[in-house]
Amino acid sequence: MSLDTLRVALRALTFTESGFYFSAGFEYSKPLWGRLFDRSGPETEIVHFSYDASGWAISVGAGFYVW
Questions:
Q1: Which domain holds residue 19?
Q2: What is the 3-state secondary structure (H, E, C) of the chain?
Q3: How many domains does the chain divide into?
Q4: pLDDT for 6-45, tens place per residue?
């Protein structure tokens, strides 16, 4: 299942000389047209609903780059 959403995100990345990086970000998410797509069967089913909510997310991550 999937939902039409508008997502706006801001993320900051910091790299180190040894290949590590750290990230932090904020994300705002809001449903757009109230359409929910169900693709589990042989045909795609679209359900329309009235939903007025939004969400905020905070993300923190770390990683390693190999060149």
A1: 2-64
A2: CEEEEEEEEEEEEEECCCCEEEEEEEEEEEEEEEEEEECCCCCCEEEECCCCCCEEEEEEEEEECCC
A3: 1
A4: 888 999 988 888 889 899 999 998 877 777 788 888 888 8
Answer whether residue 47 shows pLDDT above 90: no
Residue type for position 60: V
CA distance 27 to 8: 6
Distance in angstroms (rounded) separating the CA atoms of residues 67 and 65:
6
Structure tokens at 11: 């993320």
